[in-house]
Each structure stands twice: as structure tokens, then as C-alpha cells.
Amino acid sequence: MEKPYPQTEETPLIARARRGNAEAFSELVRRHSQQIYGVSLRMLKNHEDAEDNVQNVLCKAFNNIRQFEGNSRFSTWLVRITINEALMKLRKTQTDRAAKSAEMLRPDTDEPLIPGRRQSPQPGTRLYRQRPRR
User: Fold this and answer.
1) I want to staple 49 with a disulfide (CB 3.0 to 4.6 A). Which of 11, 44, 103, 106 is the partner?
2) 11-109 topology per CATH
């Protein structure tokens, strides 16, 4: 069994927040929101996405604060949620880009929707073929 993290000045706030006290949770948010935003911005590299991530993290933390067991600092728990949420956002963005790319192909073929916009699988080969013969 893991040893609980030593008590901190936040311990009473966390206990009150775990019992559903919104003011205690608001104080925890005030103390940690800049750190959550900083981690989000470094990972997502976009102000709007970082702000959205902060909101997602705080909602998730509020809904799951009873699961915080005190085996680490509260900030560590929040940062882990922040990283997980940012990674999910990055994965979703990658998936959306791939889907958008796939939409550019005609159904039932690998021909592009826009004529003349086909990319050669080997761009150097295409350039070689376009050189005039001497």
C-alpha cells in the first residue's frame, strides 16, 4: 500500500472540496489554474486549445476529486489530468486531419477529387520524367 503524501496547507481545502464544497474547489482552481494553462499551452501550442484544455481539466478534476487519494501532491494529480487531456486532444486532431485527407480522394478509387492535383508517391521521379530529353 502506498504511503499517503505528507499533509500540506492544501489538505483541508482538498478535504472540503471532496465533500462537495464549491468554494474550496474554487480556491484550488485559483491556486493551480496558471500551472494547468502553462502545461496545456506547451503541449498544444495554441492559446485557444490551451484554454479549452484548462476547462476540460477543471471539469474532470471537479467530477473526480473524490478519487484523489492523497498519494501525491494535488498539483501532480492535476498536471497528470492536464497531460492526459492534452494528449487526447492531439490524438483527435491527428485523426481529424487524416480523415480530412481521406475525404480528398474519390470514393472507390485513389484518384483525387481535384483533377491535376495528384501527388506522385516519389516526387523526385515525377520531376525526372518531366525533364526534356537531349
Assistant:
1) 44
2) Rna Polymerase Sigma Factor; Chain: A (1.10.1740)
